[in-house]
Amino acid sequence: MKRKFVFPWIEEKGYSSQMSFFESLKAAAGQVLDLIEKNPQIIEGVKKIVEDNGGVQGLVQKFKEKGLSDVASSWVGKGENLSLGADDVLKVLGNDSISDLAKSIGIDKDQTAGIVGSLLPSVIDGLTPDGEEPKGDVASQLTNLASLFLKK
After folding, report:
1. If you compute the radius of gyration of the chain from its CA atoms, what whole number of angstroms results?
2. 0.85 exceeded by the pTM?
3. What is the C-alpha separation between 119 and 123, in angstroms, rounded?
């Protein structure tokens, strides 16, 4: 059975579907980081998603309400972050918010949902370093968001 990549452009770039899972994951992560570097509006789009959904608490609650309680709770907790698929992103956040972001970065909706799905676990995890949802206002949460992606 041929394995499909989460991000179709990985295979287009010449990566083999016979790569190990770890190699595929490294390739996907590299592609996402490269895309973010070339399109800083992705971070602005993620900030908007967090803001439009009431900050970390509101966003986590929205995922819980859509049946993804274990996944969303893993991002806040101190254990391993469970992954989020593009279909889950579209189910919870809706086509409109993802389509708007897709237009701003010039890629299709499904790829954008995949990128958001790969970023959200890290974003929420980074904004909840003590394993608890922040109680502060949304503006202070968003101020910390950009620092999660700055090179150290």
Report:
1. 15
2. no
3. 6
